[in-house]
Amino acid sequence: IQKMAANSPRTALALLFFALSWVLGTPEISCKKEDGGAVDWFIFYKLPKRPGSKDAASGLEYLYLDSTMRSWRKSQYLVNSSKSVLGRTLEQLYKVYTSKSNETAYLMYNDGVPKSTNYSRKYGHTKGLLVWNRIQGFWLIHSVPRFPPFPEDGYEYPSSGRRYGQSGICITFKYSQYEVIDSQLLISQPNIYSCSIPNTFHQELIHMPQLCAKSSSLKIRGRHLTVLQSAQGQNFFHFVKSNSYTDDIFTAWMAQQLKTDLLAETWQRKGHALPSNCSLPYHVYNIKAIKLYHRPYFSSYHDHSKWCVSTQGSKYRWTCIGDLNRDPRQAFRSGGFICTHNQEIYYAFHRLLVHYEPCD
Q1: Is 224 an annotated catalytic residue?
Q2: Candidates 142, 304, 341, 355; catalytic one
Q3: When you count CB atoms within 10 A of the terminal residue's CB, does the N or C end of the chain come out lower?
Q4: Which distant-in-sequence residues (6+ apart) come within 8 Å of 49 by Cβ?
Q5: Is the pLDDT assigned to residue 302 strictly greater than 60?
Q6: Which one of the record's GO molecular function terms can you name (predicted)?
């Protein structure tokens, strides 16, 4: 007994040293800014291609906002550069893919798969990427079809993504949040086209490995709202619905839940747009034109982004970025939005507005 007692401090120290070695040897996975430094979150907004322009940069320029900034900044890089915020962040994916490590995982989904001309309506109208280890990771939610490429192909921005405006948000999360993300992702019914989730994660993360394996026996609820906390403690409200919830997510759910009138910017194709709606206590108005940077304003027809903000008269100032358009057919698609009442984000988006459609 005395010998065991004498050895216990050594054993405890050895275990502590092993744990610290594992933690120190595990890379910090996070959203990245253009200099490669870690950030809690970032938002990108790619400008649409200028009509008739022969400028090679047209359709590849983007605005950028992160947790260390107060307003939009026009990037010195193009979105197809490996030095862009997307290129810097996705570099971690390629390291995970080539290392084949059992300590890291990734999952990529898009209803428009890279190298394919088909769009599947069987799955959610969702586009995104997650990379994580047992310490933390990031979740990138975006609007770009056929992006990112398969990890074996390295970084590239699709030519099909140049014509329209595009947007997305990346948030860094501690691993403790991934169990919640796991359940939310199930409801969104993503079309997963590349993934690797080692067994070490399967005890806590139930659904993502099943989604990765294309399991058809999953039971999916209609909708769910949860609060996710970023690595630095900022709260994000995540709304997600499956295809069994067949209503406009903006009007029927988000505006009423957040108790605010919303101005919604989504792809407004002729014959594919729901009108502004003032039938419920909190109203939703379609944004019809926005202005990015020093460019002339452009209509929502040229913007494939999906976001909304509270009206200026609202008590609560929300900004939401996500997956779905205000389109009658998309009421039958799964997808979601991640919302924040961060004031810098709110004012950054509000300054983009030119005019919106009133209710009839």
Answers
A1: no
A2: 304
A3: N
A4: 58, 59, 162, 163, 164
A5: yes
A6: deoxyribonuclease II activity
